[in-house]
Amino acid sequence: MCGLAGIFYKGKNLKSLPPVGEQLVKMMEAMRHRGADSTGFTVAGEKVGKGDLILRLCAPAAKDGETLSAAMAALRKLGARIKSKQQIGEHLRLLISTKKELQTVSDALLAIPGLEVHSLGRASEIIKDVGDARDLDAKHRVSKLRGTHGLGHNRLATESQVDISHSHPFWAYPFTDVTTVHNGQLTNYHKLRRMYEERGFRFQTHNDSELIAVYLADKLAQGATLEQALKDSTQDFDGTFTYLVSTAQGIGFAKDKLVLKPLVVMERDDLVALASEEVALCQIFPEGIERVEPQQAQVRVWLN
Question: What digits encode the pLDDT tens for the residues 142-174?
């Protein structure tokens, strides 16, 4: 079933608005009934130094920290400067600077057995773990993260195991700052994945949601606008789906032709929020405003 949420702050006057992370946690708590196996967030628009990268790593099976230590050693070997480090259990957040190509950095990290790269971005990061939104916030303090926009997802595992690896959001390896959350199933996933693998693309999981992120990032890299990439996906993807995407500049959504997966949108002058259920949006808009329910093959974007 799963639950999706997205939020986008308009303009530059953000001081009067709560942290993006806090808003996302509230929305996902309200949709806990849609799945509490795992929860995840993208927070974008955080302020980091020019040229810096936010790197989120995880070693789910690591017991002694050796895998994460190996990751830091690999980065140093590449000449990367580690500017800050925050480790919480099997999770590691690094702020780095490097002159190497991003794919070179990513490939070096993924060559380490047991290591996962959850995200590599100049303007965003992914935080995901097993448990519900409260569990995640208590462990990772997501509600303290500021920014301009972000995504949330809670998962009911139906076709794959309950673990961190299959939690949403998914990062579009090896591109920066393109992440997705998804409710549905792509029936032509294997066909599309083979096509990308033949072109040299690499996937970290067997989740069809990861493919959505790669598809969109590839379209953007070829010069498409985000809106056009979303429109193309409604023709290229088979199955039932509603998904949200976050980039460095903003967020967007796309719905399939069958409109079987719900999405509700509320918008006012300073922000827009999207969610699988109105109960989540009521956490952001307690005053109650007009809601919109997107229809078949509809897409929309909000950009800074």
Answer: 999 999 999 999 987 665 566 787 789 999 998
Please tell me the distance from the alpha carbon of residue 274 to that of residue 280, in angstroms, as a whole number: 9
0.90 exceeded by pTM: yes
With the C-alpha atoms ordered 204, 262, 218, 119, is the resulting torsion angle positive or negative?
A: negative
Tokens matching residue 116: 């996962």
- Catalytic residue, chosen from 1, 2, 105, 172, is 2
- Concatenated DSSP letters of 105-137: HHHHHHTSTT-EEEEEESSEEEEEEES-HHHHH
How far is residue 96's CA from residue 122's CA, in Å, rounded to a whole number? Answer: 10
CB atoms within 10 A of CB 99: 9
Phi, psi of 237 (to 5 degrees): -90, 135
| pLDDT tens-digit series, residues 207-239 | 999 999 999 999 999 999 999 999 999 999 999
Residue 282 annotated in active site: no
